[in-house]
Structure formats: C-alpha cells, structure tokens
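Quick board copy: two proteins, each given as sequence then tokens.
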Amino acid sequence: MQSRGLFTDVAVTFVVTLVAAIIVTLLWNLIAHGEAAIDWPNAFRLAIILAIALPVVNRAGKRGKAR
C-alpha cells in the first residue's frame, strides 16, 4: 500500500511540475523574446527531479513526526 501511494505522489508531482514549467517557460519566452518557445529539456529535468524529491521528503517528514 505504501509503494502505491508513493507512486501516485510521484506521478501527480511530475505532471503538475511539468505543466507549471511549460507554462512558465512559454510565458517567459513570449515576454522576454517575443516568440512562443518551450524549453522542453529543462521542463522534463525539473519535473523528474521534483517528482522524486518532494514525495520522498514529504514522507520522511511524516515519518519523523510519527516517532
């Protein structure tokens, strides 16, 4: 049960982070450069890193409070 919850947390965090990074880079490029471009490599890199780090840290924090 714990691993399924962790997988769900990772998947949700990945999707939310990816969408946010896409929107931010698109708006940044529109405002700063006047062209609609998305920085795909950085968006995926950020989403992967945060999708792993945030759920693990969140679970570690909950486990520390339970002790």
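And the next:
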Amino acid sequence: MNVLTKKEKAILIIMAVFMGIIIFCSFIFTGCQSQGLVNDGTILKYQQQVDRLEEELRNRDRAVENAIRELGAITSRSEGMEGTVDELIELFTEYQQRVDKLLYDYDRVRTQTKE
C-alpha cells in the first residue's frame, strides 16, 4: 500500500493550489468580448479595473508565496520533531489554519473578480 509522507501531502496541496491559481488566471485573461460603441471614458474605466485586478493578483501571488513558505516551515519542523502528541496536534492545527486562510483569500479574490 502506498502511504504519502507529510512532505508529499504538503507538496500535493501546494500543487493543487497552484493549479487552481493557473485555472483562475486562465479564466480571467481569456474569453470573448463583443465590440460596440466605446468612448474614451469607458476605456479608461476598464483600464482602471484591469490595473486594480492585476494589483490584486500580485498581492495574491505574494500571499501564496508566503503561505508556501509558512507551510514549508511547518513541514520541516514536523520532520525534525520527536515530540509529543500535543505538539503534533498543535502543528496540524497550525497547518490547517494556514491552508484555510489561503483558501479563504483565494475565494475572496475569485468573488471580487466576478464583480
């Protein structure tokens, strides 16, 4: 039977998050748009929205990178730990909180981009 180590599980979670981000970005930056009458104010308004979304994506990228570093630190601590059950429970709780925060931020950005 194939059992995954904690490090392999963490890598799988990180890969899943990156795949989600890639899919999310592909939905944002691809698609059709019909052309109609456009005035300069509309173009400026859309450009401002694009700039805001790009900044938000950069912020999310930084948040994902920070989350990956934090999850990596937790994983490395768990590998070197010969601790008690309480220490392991605390470590898993911290890990789960980081993953939950990352998923919450991802959902928030997805909701904002739909608006």
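Board note added afterward: Residues 40-79 form the longest helix (40 residues).
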